[in-house]
Amino acid sequence: MLEDILIPISFFAFIFASIYIHLTTRNKERMAMIEKGADPSLFKSKAGGSMFFTLKAGLLFIGVAIGVLFGSLLANAAGMDEGTAYVSMIFLFGGIALVIGYRLQSKKQE
């Protein structure tokens, strides 16, 4: 019974701790750079940065969805082990989607 609640709590605690450590470390690093004379405008994000992140995330989710579909086809039609079929297709199509996102981003920046 305790294990059922302990796993989700541990998961969310790990996520929170990771984000907290990332943000505090980034803040300390930025403050040290400012003290040494760095220009604070270096820390402002570029205007198109979030657009490319959204594009990559969308392509990744589309790739994962296609991977799940093809994994299901492999498991049912080819008689392949379900775990192997799903995992391999998710990684294959997710990777293809990220490569497509990288190519689109590099073309846009040129």
TrEMBL record:
<feature type="domain" description="DUF6249">
    <location>
        <begin position="11"/>
        <end position="105"/>
    </location>
</feature>
<dbReference type="InterPro" id="IPR046216">
    <property type="entry name" value="DUF6249"/>
</dbReference>
<protein>
    <recommendedName>
        <fullName>DUF6249 domain-containing protein</fullName>
    </recommendedName>
</protein>
<feature type="transmembrane region" description="Helical">
    <location>
        <begin position="6"/>
        <end position="23"/>
    </location>
</feature>
<keyword id="KW-0472">Membrane</keyword>
<keyword id="KW-1133">Transmembrane helix</keyword>
<feature type="transmembrane region" description="Helical">
    <location>
        <begin position="53"/>
        <end position="73"/>
    </location>
</feature>
<dbReference type="Pfam" id="PF19762">
    <property type="entry name" value="DUF6249"/>
</dbReference>
<keyword id="KW-0812">Transmembrane</keyword>
<feature type="transmembrane region" description="Helical">
    <location>
        <begin position="85"/>
        <end position="104"/>
    </location>
</feature>
